[in-house]
Structure formats: C-alpha cells, structure tokens
Amino acid sequence: MRRPAVLLLSGGLDSATSGAIARAEGFELFALSFDYGQRHRHELDAARRVAHALDVRRHATLPIDMTQFGHSALTDDIPVPKERSAESMSAGIPVTYVPARNTVFLSLALAFAETIPAADIFLGVNALDYSGYPDCRPEFIEAFERLANLATKAGVEGTLRFKIHAPLIRMTKAEIIRRGTQLGVDYSLTHSCYDPQLSGRSCGRCDSCQLRRKGFAEAGLVDPLEYEA
C-alpha cells in the first residue's frame, strides 16, 4: 500500500518534477494548489493538467487573497522585471517575492496532511537556480519541519512524524529537467512565466522564463513551450 503525501503543486516545472519524484518513490499524492491572486493565473490551469498526469488521489485548490497585502510584482500593480542578467537575478530579493508565501502555503499543506493523515509533504523549492527567495533555502525547510512537529496534535501525540521533502533544493535547473525527463514528466503541461500574455503564452523575458530556458539549454533538451520573445 502506497503511503500518502501532500504535494504543493503550482503547475510549474519544479513542482511537477517534485511530484514525479514523489510518485516514483511510491507515494500516493494529494495535491494542493493556491489561487492567491497571482497575475500568472495560467499556472492554475497547468496545475490541473499536471495533477491529472500525475494521477493524484485528490487535487484541492484553495483561494487566498494575498492581493490584500500586495508588495509583490505577482500580486500588485508592480512591473515584473524583464531581461535581467544572471548577476542581477542573484543580487538581493526581487520584487516578485510574495511576502511569506511558502510559509503560508506550507502551513496549509500541514493542515491538509494532518487530516489525511500523511506524514510527508513535497514541494519544489530550489536554492541554486532561484531568484533570491528566502523561503527557498534549506534553512527554511529544516525550520518548518521542526515547527510542523511542534505545532500539530499529530506531532505532539507522536501519531505522525512530519517530513518536509524538497528533493530539488540542491539541483540546478538543468539537473531538475533531466531528472523529470527521466521520470516521464511532460513539460508541455507546465507553466513558468510570471507575466504571460492573455493567451497564456510565456513572455520569455521574466526571471522565471529565463531560468527555465537556460535550464533546458544546459540540459541539451528542447523546451516544449512557446515564448512571445
């Protein structure tokens, strides 16, 4: 019998690969996505496509209006940076950072996991090819895992020992793409762009698009997505 696990599923390349790894390790997946007011809402359609491809047991999409707080180019009327150099992307925390987003998402994933019950939570954060987000670091994942076991009934009573899995955290984007390809991930189902066209076509110039394109190029593979530029 497969063990249940909660998968944080954005519909992007990384979360799709994380889900494929979890499935390959024998977990039965319960996917969780968030409609938090993100401007790149096409990712929610991608999340549904990926969830179907991964044959998840259940896929829940929770509404959270993080536009009430703003202060991010993904949830506020702030331009998404375009055509930045690798040096610029690695210098400081960009305006696409959504305040405390992964803390909020993991907290809700933890609540979901406790009710299933499932001791394992997977997410696709990455600390190498990432845009300076503080909630994508190993220190954050380790700290949240400690919190999970302190802040829940299941953790305190010892009925579950929560484990936060971040299998991509020390991988380059190229390594992630190669691993996903080995596992049969269909990357045409995914969406990565921070500022897509109304049609859903990726801009090709935001940080996320550039990191994705660089990853496919370094992996020696063809990105199946179409780009505006």
Describe the structure.
This protein is an alpha/beta fold and 229 residues long. It has one domain: 3-Layer(aba) Sandwich (Rossmann fold). 37% of the residues lie in helices and 12% in strands. The chain has helices at 13-24, 42-53, 86-89, 101-115, 138-150, 153-157, 173-182, 207-219; strands at 3-8, 27-35, 58-63, 120-122, 163-165. It has a five-stranded parallel β-sheet, with helices on both faces. β1, α1 and β2 form a beta-alpha-beta unit. α1 packs across α7 (173-182). The chain is globular. The model has no long low-confidence stretch (mean pLDDT 95).
Task: Name the features.
single chain, 229 residues, alpha/beta, Rossmann fold, 5-stranded parallel sheet, 8 helices, globular
Give the helix/strand class. Answer: alpha/beta
Number of spatially distinct domains? 1
CATH superfamily: HUPs
> Largest sheet, order of strands side by side?
3-2-1-4-5
Describe, in short, the structure shown.
With 229 residues, this protein is an alpha/beta fold.
Topology at a glance:
Blueprint: E1 3-8, H1 13-24, E2 27-35, H2 42-53, E3 58-63, H3 86-89, H4 101-115, E4 120-122, H5 138-150, H6 153-157, E5 163-165, H7 173-182, H8 207-219
Helix pairs in contact: 1-7, 7-8
